[in-house]
Design brief:
Blueprint (H helix, E strand, L loop, with lengths): L10 H5 L3 E3 H8 L3 H10 L5 E3 L2 E5 H15 L1
Antiparallel strand pairs: 1-3, 2-3
Helix pairs in contact: 2-3
């Protein structure tokens, strides 16, 4: 099993990073990579490019979740 998909790896480790991979962002949100790419395309998450890698800032991911919480509450 891929290490990022191993549920025994604490997500707190990922949250302490400045930028997250699409795989890690998907794991934290509990959605698939396709959903994360769709959110990036729609502009609901901000894409960071470093070389060929697509990353998402941890602060942007937290803000995204907060915006969702505001809509529900």
């Amino acid at each position: 099993m891929h290490k990022l998909l191993d549920r025994s790896v604490p997500t707190a480790i990922a949250v302490n990073r400045e930028a997250l991979s699409v795989d890690m962002a998907a794991l934290i949100l509990g959605v698939g990579k396709v959903t994360v790419y769709r959110l990036l395309k729609e502009g609901r998450l901000i894409r960071l490019k470093i070389g060929r890698r697509t990353l998402i800032s941890a602060s942007d991911l937290s803000a995204f979740v907060a915006r969702l919480s505001d809509k529900v509450g």
